[in-house]
Amino acid sequence: MAIDDADFATLYRARNQDAEPAYQRVKNVITEQVSAGFWAEGELLPSENQLVQALGLSRMTINRAFRELVAEGQVARLMGVGTFVARRKGSSPLVEVRNIADEVRARGRHYWAEVVLLRAEPAEQAVAGELELPAGEKVFHSLVVHFEDELAIQLEDRFVRPDRAPDYLAQDFTQNTPNTYLSHAAPLQRGEHIVEAGLGSAEECRLLGIGGGDPCLLIRRRTWSANRPVSVARLVLPGSRYRLEGSFEQH
Q: Which of 37, 84, 109, 113 has the fewest CB atoms within 10 Å, i.e. the most exposed one?
């Protein structure tokens, strides 16, 4: 059974207050109760205001505890909704190009998507260069937010060569991902990844429901089929909700 803010206050005050600062005591109570199963994955935690009132601490202290727990992947914050016990992070191989919908469903979670943008537009110089097209040439542009249960786990901003995937704009990407369509229209020959840690833009953070200072994984991915570029995509993944993993052997 979940503990409420009154129970939280009792647990907080029972700790040795000389042994650790207040924000650390808040963090420790949360992590201990999660580990003990009193708060389950995805469960809503008491709000900052509730803990300020129950514990008699400053909002700055509670906010620091939550911020550090987010950075450590212990909790997740959904803007306008609240703070939740973090689900076990989704993961994806470092090199292999996989369908995110399949990854989510393989974890027993509900996958869904929101299509923010799907249109033809002139290619800016950088995109045109990556797709080996003249600047201003028409390209297909999609912006899709991928969800695992109630949390946005990836923002996919993709540009596609029309000659490689002519029916791209006719697809319903709430039912099938761009990856699914492209794997049939232009079977993958090779891919290129650039992975960085950073921050999303203000609009990207809004679409993902994260704060502007929340760390993200930023992936630039380009794919080829039949020796010609097919698409280039910018993927933004909240660091508290996702990870990349891989393995290697030395011979």
A: 37
